[in-house]
Design a protein that fits this description.
Layout lengths: L2 E4 L15 E4 L11 E8 L6 H12 L2 E12 L4 E6 L2 H12 L4 E6 L5 H12 L6 E3 L14 H11 L5 E2 L3 H8 L6 H8 L5 E4 L8 E8 L4 E7 L8 H14 L4 H17 L21
Parallel strand pairs: 3-4, 3-6, 6-7, 7-8, 8-9
Antiparallel strand pairs: 1-2, 4-5, 9-10, 10-11
Helix pairs in contact: 1-7, 2-3, 3-4, 4-5, 5-6, 7-8
């Protein structure tokens, strides 16, 4: 195998004879050890703040490779979502199976589904690969509050997808929808949802407390609370960032509790360093931890 590359001198002399500048060497191609592949089934956000771009950036920062399969197309910006369209099930299955048949997938991250049919589609796909750890981010609302699916989609996810998941990562408003407890506390929602899922991470931040409490509930009865400082402003794509980072940590072989802690710490740093790229919410700056210490 030969390595072909181009080089440019600072003061090139006029070429004589054949075109100069192409350098061929016998150096062997550098082949790296493969990064863990995480299959992402999520919607596309054209603003780049949430959805599949958030998945790709957050997983890259963990040292993983994201394989994105589009479930839905959205019309949204950093302010809110105005419309969305769910893809045909055949297209989603074809995308996901192309990845699964080609690569050794280490984990699956689930985001926006948007319809009951898409819930059924993803259930069918995951039942064929029960060994893969699934991180389920039940995306039902955009950061600006716009709906990304009817509440019935959330109920279907609770009944059919949570039992297939290693962990679900709803924020408190989403947990209330899933649990059908409009004013429920995190503890009350967890009591309703743990019969469906092995682990449940209910994130805080939607109140006005100075310290944010992120609560990890497990079916064995253990509960852990991770606190962090509240940051000013509101953020577009924080939930996608967290769920993807968590899927990446699990794909790397980290145990669940430490993976949750690492993903929460990483997400907080991306919010601390967030950018205002549009007229609405801040967008997480999803750099590797080495760059956001």
């Amino acid at each position: 195998m030969i390595d072909v590359h181009f080089s440019r001198k600072k003061n090139p002399s006029p070429p004589s004879g054949p075109e100069k500048g192409l350098v061929v060497s016998s150096r062997a191609m550098t082949i790296y050890n493969s990064r863990p592949v995480v299959l992402c089934l999520s919607g596309h956000d054209p603003s780049g703040g949430a959805g599949l771009q958030a998945d790709i950036e957050a997983l890259l920062a963990q040292g993983c490779h994201a394989a994105p399969a589009v479930t839905a197309l959205t019309v949204q910006d950093t302010v809110n979502v105005s419309d969305f369209r769910v893809l045909d099930r055949e297209w989603v299955l074809a995308q996901a199976n192309a990845v699964l048949n080609d690569s050794t997938v280490a984990a699956v991250k689930l985001g926006m589904l948007g319809s009951l049919e898409m819930v059924d589609t993803v259930v069918e796909l995951l039942q064929a690969h029960p060994h893969l750890p699934l991180v389920c981010d039940p995306v039902l609302r955009a950061g600006g509050g716009g709906r990304l699916g009817k509440d019935e989609v959330g109920y279907a996810m609770r009944e059919r997808l949570l039992p297939l998941s290693k962990i679900a990562t709803p924020n408190l408003p989403e947990a209330r929808i899933l649990a059908e407890l409009p004013q429920g506390s995190a503890d009350e929602c967890a009591a309703k949802l743990l019969p469906f899922v092995e682990h449940l991470l209910i994130t805080g931040g939607h109140g006005d407390e100075q310290e944010i409490h992120n609560r990890l509930y497990s079916r064995d009865g253990t509960t852990r609370t991770f606190t962090c400082q509240r940051l000013p402003g509101s953020y577009h794509g924080s939930g996608c960032t967290l769920a993807s980072a968590l899927a990446g940590r699990l794909a790397l072989g980290q145990d669940l509790v430490s993976a949750v802690e690492t993903a929460l710490d990483y997400t907080w740093r991306t919010l601390r360093d967030a950018e205002q790229l549009g007229k609405g919410q801040f967008v997480p700056r999803r750099l590797p931890l080495d760059f956001c210490s």
